[in-house]
Amino acid sequence: MSLNGWQKNGWLQPHQTSREEVQNILQIIKRDLRDSQLSDLSPDWRFAISYNAALQCCTIALYCMGFKSGRGQSEHYRVIQTLPLTMGDKYDETRDYLNACRVKRNISDYDTAGTISTQEVSELVETGQKLFNELSMWLSKNYPNYL
User: Fold this and answer.
1) Rounded to the nearest 5°, which phi and psi values hold at 67?
2) Does residue 72 surpass a pLDDT of 90?
3) What's the pLDDT score for residue 129?
């Protein structure tokens, strides 16, 4: 289904982004990628910070395409699910991985502390950094006016 189809279903809303908005979110991503490396934080918290960096990468791609998540339940889920629709089909696996991370983050944030391993943190930090690098290249190619 296309982004327009998602909008028709009420899952997305039109959104006009700006260079300032994209730049602000890029700064959040950089901060979160940096802070996720802090060894004095718990693995749960480092995972949540890394997750946010990756989620914000998905958000920027969606904003650049002229949409934002509809308000209500499942906002994170919907933003993550749009990644292949914004940046391309090669992001199907990344979408699925980030969705699994979303579920883990929800458990560690709301249900049970200590559920995230340092290996899981390392994997998500690596994925978030890779996605950020690829988003930067995607922006340079497709939306250079936002850089």
Assistant:
1) -140, 160
2) no
3) 98
Q: What is the CATH number of the domain that holds 135?
A: 1.20.120.330
Instruction: Give 113's DSSP letter.
Output: T
How far apart, in Å, are the Cα atoms of 14 and each of 3, 8, 63, 91, 134? 10, 11, 9, 23, 24
**Considering its fold, how many domains does the chain have in total?**
1
* Mean pLDDT value across the chain: 96
Question: What is the span of the domain harbouring residue 61?
Answer: 3-146
How many other CB atoms sit within 10 Å of the CB of residue 39? 7
Q: Is 71 helix (H, G, I), strand (E, B) or coil?
A: coil
Q: Beta-strand (E) ranges in the chain?
A: 12-14, 67-69
The values of phi and psi at residue 106, to 5°, are -60, -40
Return the closest-CA partner of residue 49 out of 68, 63, 65, 28: 28
91 DSSP 8-state letter: G
Q: 76-131: per-residue pLDDT in tens?
A: 999 999 999 999 999 999 999 999 999 999 999 999 999 999 999 999 999 999 99
- 126 CB contacts (<8 Å, ≥6 apart)? none
